[in-house]
Amino acid sequence: MVNEAIFRSAPMCLCQIVVASEVSREIIASLGERDLIQFTDLNADSTAFNRTFVKEIRRLDEITRQLNYFKKCMSKVKIKPKKIPDHVNVSAAPHASEIDELANRANDLEERISQLMESNETLLSKQSELFEIRHVLITAGEIFDQAYSVPIELRMSVDNADNAPLLIHDLESGEPSRSQTISNANISFVAGVIARDKLGTLERILWRSLRGNMLIRNSDIEASIKDPKSGEDVPKSVFVVFAHGAGILAKVQKLAESLEANIHAVNEDLVIRRDQIREVNGAIDDVEDVVAHTELTLRTELEEISNHIESWLIIAQKERAIYAALNMFSYDPTRKILIAEGWVPTDQLSELRQSLTEVTETSGLDAPCVLNELQTTRTPPTYYRTNKFTETFQTIIDAYGISQYQEVNPGLPAIVTFPFMFAIMFGDLGHGAIMFLAGVALIAYEQKIGKIANRDEMFDMIFTGRYVILMMGVFAMYTGLIYNDIFSKSMTLFRPGWQWPQTWNEGDLILANQTGVYPFGLDPTWHGSENSLIFGNSYKMKLSILIGFIHMLYSLFFSLINFRFYGQKIDIYGNFIPGLLFLVSIFGYLAFMIVFKWTVDWYAIDKPPPGLLNTLIDMFLSPGTVQDLLFPGQAALQVILVLLAIACVPWLLFLKPMYLRRKHKKQSVSHGYSSIASEQENTRLSIESASSIIVQEMEVEEPFDFGDIMIHQVIFTIEFCMACVSHTASYLRLWALSLAHAQLSTVLWSMTFQPALNVKSAGPGGMLASVLLFGAWFSLTVFILVIMEGTSAMLHSLRLHWVEAMSKHFIGDGTQFTPFSFGEVVSSSGG
């Protein structure tokens, strides 16, 4: 029977498993489905290449590479992998035959897909080249036709020498003409295609390199040309550069090719160009047919792969996890057995033994597994059993640190205290209801939302904390009822305990008469009164001190529970008792004064209420004197409490170090080696001769150093005493954020929706204004008061737990229990 493990982590035991190598894979595959054991690495000193199952790991890595190659090919042709059906159990162990079949199939598919991809890429490159040639021929022909259209008189005036001017100037304007002479001038050209975003760069580089002694013409290609490597459409442009001399043309060609331009040969003869265009068009038609057929075949193959690739990846990952676990085992090649060690919850030890027995019986081999429970001095990992509700709260605590093995789990009280601290700062019935409904919606649709792949990171965080949001909404509604606050307005649920006078004159100070006590929460009469803010501030500030003291006090008692559980009596007498007395003598006394002051009707006895802050300060500055007496005997009590707090400081400083020093002097024998022998059965594979396996562990006791212990205790004492002061003051954030939230809610109401309610004139205009202002008020309420203020209050509540409460008892030097699990392998890979 599996016991609950939430107040303390589950008891763990160190087990040793001896299995024959023939059934080792089946054993680990079975354990991967049950989440029972966390294996320890017995080959930590060995490199990954010197372990037993390196070949198997490499084989599975190759299969994973092939499957990822298929996904990359699918991405190029815009095919998405099919999701694994819900009825398929992704946590089930793969069979050995599945791996062999997958390896053979992956090899065959890779050969076919790679051939198809190479052929398709080659054809696309040829097609892209033909498209570019056709556009170059057409564009260059247009440029040549424009050049030959220049009047013959102007063309004959150009010198035939090599140093003839490249550009022909307009006789009237003196500007370069756009026409070129090619036949009579010694001018050559380079034509090609370049990406459109690189055309400007090419023009600037050529202009600077050739010092302007060139002419470049370009024309954009309307249709985008597909890049054969990426499969994306790339906008390109045709360019033709005219220049003198072969050297300059070679330079132009190199500069263009450095910008990934494709150079194509073009003949300036019109007849030849027309023949070339006809040949290119015919070749394009032929290539398009072949490309279409190749793409169809490739798409058919990849669509078939897309139906299985996700499950194939999971199979490969689980199989790799099996051999990665086997690589942590110690292998005995002479007897061909594997020896494993791992941590198992004690109450699941019988389940582990039963699982091993089932696998060995199913395998048909007469090779029984041997399971030994070892005694050890090593600290076990921490394992809390959680459900959907408690998991998020436990995750919040574990984010700060993992609890020490079997120390009190602060995640259990956080289920109540975390949303309650939040609600004290966020107390509003309306805002809490919005948060509660959001949590209900996330829980109601959790199955549908959980199936959504690639969720937004922020939304995924909110969805994971849906039960926290639900609890925060519930507690916020509760504190909203106590504060009698709903969207900054009050509610009169019961008969008020105060009554206003029926008549008064303008300018008079109106005083309400108390007629009773409001049954629950804050009396609605306080809302709207002139001194409501003063009363609310005083009430919430004192309440935050009381809540803080109670929170720290019960957290401190958790340390007592830990000390008793671990048998650390010196920590009880040397740390807990003086720490408790120090906390109670100062801040417990302050909490007592707050409650006592509330119980006295000071106006009935015609006495001003004393100031508690001044009383606490004078308690240390002027012991024995009280200016405003709260109760008889207060001065003597304060002297006693001050002396007690002062006495607790040396108590904390010296009792534990002196006790440990005295204990060390009495000890004459230190701890040595401890050997543990455990009987085990043997197998027919040479395990029969083994009678027992002896596990020896050396318990090394650190040398006693009184100086280190004393320094540690001094630091602990200073931190504890200072923390009692600072942490108590830190709880005033409960009051501050509650006040800020209430005031911001009031301001938002008065500046948005309240003016619409004060409109005297009705009609379409007033109705439209009311609708618009209500929408603005509700939107700002959700985004500012609920989301932003809620996040702020949640972070402050988190800090109060991590620092103020957990520092009183939390050790937090544990390690998380991470059992070998196929479910964890699949979830970590995004499956």
Broad structural category: alpha+beta
Overall pLDDT confidence: 83
Subunit organisation of the chains: single chain
Q: In what range is the share of β-strand residues?
A: 5-15%
**Which percent range fits the helix content?**
55-70%
Number of helices: 24
How would a textbook summarize the main sheet? 5 strands, antiparallel
Shape verdict: extended
Q: Could you list the spans in which at least 5 consecutive residues all have pLDDT below 50?
A: 150-184, 668-700
Query: Total number of β-strand segments?
Result: 15
Radius of gyration from the CA trace? 41 Å
Overall description:
- A hairpin with a 6-residue loop joins strand 5 and strand 6 (233-234).
- This protein has helices at 24-32, 54-76, 96-148, 152-156, 196-209, 246-258, 270-306, 309-326, 349-363, 388-398, 411-426, 429-444, 446-450, 457-464, 466-483, 532-566, 569-599, 612-621, 634-666, 706-730, 733-751, 754-757, 764-805, 822-828, and strands at 12-20, 38-39, 188-195, 215-220, 225-226, 233-234, 236-243, 262-264, 330-332, 337-345, 370-374, 498-499, 513-514, 673-679, 692-698.
- The protein has 24 helices and 15 strands.
- It is 56% helix and 9% strand.
- Strands 1, 2, 9, 10 and 11 form a five-stranded antiparallel sheet that branches. A four-stranded antiparallel sheet has the order 4-7-3-8, sandwiched between helices.
- The two termini are 31 Å apart.
- The longest helix has 53 residues, at 96-148.
- The protein is extended, with a radius of gyration of 41 Å.
- Among the domains are: 136-280, 2-Layer Sandwich (Alpha-Beta Plaits), CATH 3.30.70.2750; 388-490 and 527-808, no CATH class; 495-526, no CATH class.
- The protein is α+β, with helices and mostly antiparallel strands.
